[in-house]
Design goal:
The structure is a homodimer. Chain A has helices spanning about 5-25, 35-40, 45, 55-70, 80-90, 95-115, 115-145, 155-175, 180-195. By secondary structure, chain A is mainly alpha-helical. In chain A, α1 packs across α4 (about 55-70). The N and C termini of chain A lie far apart (about 75 Å).
Chain lengths: ~200, ~200
């Protein structure tokens, strides 16, 4: 007898959870039908009802990563300017176990994405959208006098994204050196460095 | 008849070249005995004389990456201060096809390294050494008055490494948006942002 639709939905959730746990522990390099089946304590044959091919499993994993990133809890966004940028950058960092797992899976996906033209384009598009999301807040910060008048918001958005993603990688490899408070202090130092000193600026030199 | 020692050495070089080309194109996720054999137009059986296991192939690939990184051509190091830091950061970026291949292989290795405790420790050690190499030049820059007196060189070295590695990733995914001159301009903007404005500082605000 085939499972009832409700069971099927619940089982699909179980499968996604198992895929996530395998990714968080072993990355895309360790994502196999066998590893997911072992994680669920089911047969590989059972799992092939969900993923007839390795490719189907990878596609599901990438969709799951996209979905969980979109649905992740985020900090309240202050109204405008650098404090909004700060909240956006902190939302990217591996500051909680959940954030760490997600970041670790993103970093792991880069090997796969760089080897596939379509995935490379998608990933470049993600970075472009991220810069576009940050840019207006840098413009607002400039207009508020928090940043120098000569600031190029697009260039600065690219620098901020680069800094934040590089910090993600350092923190994933060396969580002892980069615990939560150190990551936050680095973001604050970075933001202080781009703000001009003196009244109106964030830099207390 | 076994090959003469000279032949064997030459063949070993051929194998390393083929491993490198596979890594540059497909990353560690695409590194298989079959792919390397195809690249060399030899049988997988022949290749198993060099790499009896997949693990041996991966170990060789990681050693090769380490070796080629250590032996890469580098810019002349100015005597001291921020201009030295600039040369060091530029030496990391994907500014030439060779640099791009090497960076692409490093990024690809992170999936593997994050899944293996020993490799994670080695990678964390590499970042620690990189920060230690940059730090004295930031100290010198501070002592020369190029950086504010309150600069924390260790923290700033970590910020500089994060920025540079994040830029590597953005440039690999979107070389059209981040060609050589844009990457260099970003490094210069980053360095200008950490230097204090006014006489003696590098910031022309």
């Amino acid at each position: 007898m085939p499972p009832a639709p409700g069971d099927r939905e619940a089982r699909r959730e179980d499968v996604s959870e198992a895929v996530w746990r395998v990714l968080a522990g072993k990355g895309f390099g360790g994502l196999t039908l066998r590893a997911v089946a072992a994680e669920m304590e089911v047969s590989t044959g059972m799992l092939m009802h969900y993923f007839p091919t390795k490719r189907a499993l990878i596609t599901h994993a990438l969709d799951l990563l996209e979905k969980r990133t979109a649905e992740r809890p985020r900090r309240a966004r202050p109204v405008a300017g650098l404090s909004t940028v700060r909240a956006m950058l902190l939302d990217i960092l591996p500051l909680t176990p959940g954030d760490t797992a997600r970041n670790r899976i993103w970093v792991s996906s880069w090997d796969l994405s760089l080897a596939d033209e379509g995935l490379t384009t998608e990933q470049a598009g993600r970075y472009t959208r991220l810069r576009s999301t940050i840019r207006p807040h840098l413009e607002a910060a400039r207009d508020l006098g928090e940043l120098p008048a000569a600031t190029d918001p697009e260039q600065l958005a690219a620098i901020a994204v680069a800094f934040t993603h590089g910090l993600v990688v350092q923190a994933l490899f060396d969580p002892g050196r980069f615990p939560e408070d150190v990551q936050i202090a680095m973001v604050d130092d970075f933001l202080a460095s781009i703000a001009p000193p003196g009244p109106g600026g964030g830099k207390g030199r």
